Amino acid sequence: MKIVEVRHPLVQHKLGLMRRADNSTKTFRELAGEVAALLTYEATADLECEDAEVEGWAGPVRVRRIKGRKITLVPILRAGLGMLPGVLELIPAAKVGVVGIRRDESTLEAMAYYENLVGDMADRTALILDPMLATGGTLVATVDMLKKAGCTRIKGLFLVAAPEGLRALGARHPDVEVYVASIDERLNELGYILPGLGDAGDKIFGTRA
Ligand SMILES: O=P(O)(O)OC[C@H]1O[C@H](OP(=O)(O)OP(=O)(O)O)[C@H](O)[C@@H]1O
Ligand SMILES: O=c1cc[nH]c(=O)[nH]1
Ligand SMILES: [Mg+2]
User: Fold this and answer.
1) Across residues 83-94, what is the average pLDDT?
2) Family per UniProt (predicted)?
3) Pocket of ligand 2 (CB under 6 A)
4) Mean pLDDT of the chain
């Protein structure tokens, strides 16, 4: 399975700021968007390009442009919405399909409650957006959904992942590529990532667990 831990200084610095316990909702949200944009830069590095010609200021000029499969963004409700603005800054024309999955905090089982994907999933590369990859249950359920809809090229963008979640994904969907700002140490007994960020959804939306 392809796993890219993005070591770029801007990503590491911004993630370090996100780990502070005293961040305001505004600060956490802004940083989530900024790191998401930087992850997008990495995750799109292999997009296919082609030559084209445009009329420039001094006559015709050869340029490069992206060709091939289009992208659909798939934020997982609710925390994935916190990454969406940053990703859309780099891919403003992307279509967005939304998936609602909530983790039952006592059983840690992923429960799907909403699905609204774009129609032509088979022709698109899906970029799943979720700040946290913990046990992997939410991600596996999302990939199940996307594949059922015909999607064959799937990448996931995460701020923090636990080794346990990466193993679970590798066992079920080894073809999915992962781009993550940090692979952290482990899950605690409640299924939270250590050192992690705490509850990313609550921090992005200003709610409290
Ligand atoms: O890998 P897992 O163990 O499945 O956990 C990860 C999921 O848990 C969090 O969402 P949560 O269920 O808290 O929903 P929220 O986005 O509404 O906060 C997080 O944003 C992931 O979606
Ligand atoms: O550490 C974790 C695990 C799941 N969901 C979160 O928001 N944080
Ligand atoms: Mg949450």
Assistant:
1) 97
2) Belongs to the UPRTase family.
3) 132, 134, 192-193, 196, 199-201
4) 96
Q: What is the pTM of this model?
A: 0.96
Residue 140's pLDDT is 97
Contact between residue 131 and residue 204 where contact means Cβ atoms under 8 Å apart: yes
Helical pair 137-148 and 163-172, crossing angle rounded to 10 deg:
30
Q: What is the amino acid identity at position 12?
A: Q
Which residue has its alpha carbon closest to ligand 1 atom 21? 132
For residue 130, how far is its CA from the centre of ligand 2 (angstroms)? 10
Q: Check: CB of residue 200 under 8 Å from CB of residue 79.
A: yes
Calculate how far, in angstroms, residue 91's C-alpha sits from the geometric centre of ligand 2: 26
Phi/psi of residue 79, each to 5°? Answer: -60, -30
- Counting Cβ atoms within 10 Å, is residue 43 exposed (0-12), middle (13-18) or buried (19+)? buried
The per-residue pLDDT for 208 is 82
- The CATH number corresponding to 3-205 among 3.40.1010.10, 3.40.80.10, 3.30.70.20, 3.40.50.2020 equals 3.40.50.2020
Cα(204)–Cα(209) distance, integer angstroms: 12
